[in-house]
Design goal:
single chain; 106 residues; mainly beta; Jelly Rolls; five-stranded antiparallel beta sheet; 5 strands; globular
Length: 106
């Protein structure tokens, strides 16, 4: 699998889900950098996203997971090498209408 962007070697976040969740959305936001998102599911599957359908900031990535239970590794990267280490805000929700730009509280 080829994922766009530059990622750290270790996950920045580990999410432990104790009971099955039918739908989970992982989003990140940084209005100044083009972020990328990489997730390793409990089953060992890699899922990545560069750009989403965020109505306010289409460069914010998001990943939707279904029927999730177990440990999820979350890696936040950047599309361009010069953005590596950029700050960001992470959001995790069961709301399919929630996007990275929702984290700003505008």
């Amino acid at each position: 699998m080829h994922c766009q962007g530059f990622y750290p070697e270790a996950p920045q976040h580990i999410l432990k889900v104790g009971k099955t969740i039918p739908f989970l959305r992982i989003v990140v936001d940084n209005p100044s950098h083009d972020l990328t998102l990489l997730v390793r599911t409990p089953e060992g599957q890699w899922v990545c996203n560069d750009d989403s359908q965020d109505p306010s900031t289409p460069f914010n990535p998001l990943i939707d997971l279904t029927n999730l239970r177990g440990e999820v590794e979350i890696y936040v990267g950047t599309f361009e090498r010069d953005g590596v280490g950029a700050s960001y805000t992470l959001g995790i929700t069961e709301d399919p209408g929630y996007y990275g730009s929702s984290l700003r509280g505008d």
